[in-house]
Structure formats: C-alpha cells, structure tokens
C-alpha cells in the first residue's frame, strides 16, 4: 500500500485526494521545509537502520520522500545545504554512539565480574577413609613392585603395576567432587562482546551464527553510523587544514605585497632625493655661473674705463658734483621769498 501510495503521489501529486476547498489552503511541501528529513536527503536516516531490532528508534517524525530527495539533488542550493544537513546528522549519530559506548562499557564490566568457579567442596568422612585405604594399598604394592624388580621377577612386577593403575583410577574418582552445579559451570560456554553494536556473542561460536550476526540490521546499522562519523571528522579536519593553509598563503601573499610596496616606496623616495639633490646642485651651479658672469662683466667694464684714460670716471664725478650744486641752488631760491620781495619793493 505504501508503494502504491508513493507511486500515485509521484504521478498525481500529494494533493490528489483534496477537495477544492481544501486545495485553497494547501501548501505543497518542498525539500527545504522543516517537516522534511534532512538526514534522509543528504545520507541516511538512523530511524531506518534499526527497525525491529533491540535498538529500534521508532518511525522518523519527519518526511521521507524520494521525489523531494531528487528535487534536492537537482537544486542549485544543494551544495550550500549539504554541510548543514551533514553536521546535524553527525551530531545525531554521535549521540547514538555515545549511548552505545556506555552500553558496551557496562557489558565489559559484566563479563569481567563473572563469578569464578567455586572451589570443590570438602570430602565426606566416608570418602576420606576410603581414600586413605586406597593410598595405603598403592604404597604397599609399589614396595612389592620394587622388591620383585630387584629379584628379577619382571612378570610378577608388571602384574602388580596393573593393580596400582587400577587403584590410582579409584583414587582419582574418590578425589573428584560430584556436585552437579560445579559440573555445569565447567561446561558453560564463555561469552564475548561485539565492539561495533554492543551485542553479546558466544565465543568461538559456529561460523554460520557469527556471519548471521555480522550481516544483521543492528550490526550493519551501527557500522554505518560509526563509518559516517569517522568520514565526517576526517573531511572536516581536512577542510580545516586546507582553510588554515589558505589563510597562511594569503598572509604570506600580503606580506610579500607589503614588502614590494615598501621597496617601491623606498626606491621612489631615493629617486626623489636624487632628483632634489641634482636640482639643488644645478641651482648652485647656476648661481656660481651667474656670479662668475657678473664678475667677468665688472672686470671688462673696469678694463674699458682704464683704456679711456679715466675720462669716463672723471666725467661722472664732475657731472655728479655740478648736478648737486644746481640742485642746491634751486632749493635755496625756493626757500627765500622775503628776499625777492624786498628787492621788488626797493
């Protein structure tokens, strides 16, 4: 019925039996809804592993739908959701394994605390007396065997030795306890514990029974759970190592980039200093060149004056004195108005 229902859901949809009124409020379930089992989507659901076994977890409370799983595998968001679902599954499986390991430890303690066989009970007085008589007979016969052997009577000595062996068997029978419980403990089979699923097994059992256990649901289910945890931890550790290497590589690239930038800046500063140094040197050279040119012109001017016989210099000096005298006369006239008016009045 479940297979037929799933086939109809795939062909006609899960809402095939709803009325028109019910269809109005119906929302189609998608793979990313909370009602859908993410464990089933990404790997396996532990609720499906132990059905009808001692470790049965019951039915999964969330939806298991192959059509939704197929939709999830084709979704562009598949790779983004896989780590999330796997982390949740790993957490659930680790809790299962922790509970199982506690059960395994308790099983080991039970096996270690098995009661050792009790010591045989003491012999009764009657059996002790019979045992003493038998031991005395054996002693006497052994002395006779030794005497006959020294006398060379080999046949008689061998006949007595056969009687000694019979008495030794009787002695052993008298010494062994006849307690039925002790005999049963001696014949009891030794138990062993499966480290994978925590089941008790008979040690050195038949190969058929051992194979039946190994292929059973409980053993296979816990094997899948343990393998997934090991695989998940290894993948996570590998991812962490790769991320660490990527961070270290990125840090190394940034360090090299900083060194390159520092070297470029150092070269730029050195080039600027060299350029300023050349500019200062050129400016100083131009200043010295101008100064030399000025000195050269002054020297040439003095040479021309010397060739003119000093006339140029005397002319400037005379012109300077006459000019000063004329300027003084003009100032004197402008400052004596009274004198001029007196002359006009007279």
TrEMBL record:
Keywords attached to this entry: Coiled coil
Residues in coiled coil: 124-151
GO aspect biological process, one term: mRNA splice site recognition
Gene Ontology terms: cellular component: U1 snRNP
InterPro entries, per the entry: Luc7-rel (IPR004882)
Top-rank taxon, per record: Eukaryota
Biased composition (Basic residues): 334-346
Molecular function (Gene Ontology), one example: mRNA binding
Pfam family, one: LUC7
PANTHER family, per database record: RNA-BINDING PROTEIN LUC7-RELATED (PTHR12375)
Family statement: Belongs to the Luc7 family.
Name of the featured protein: RNA-binding protein Luc7-like 2
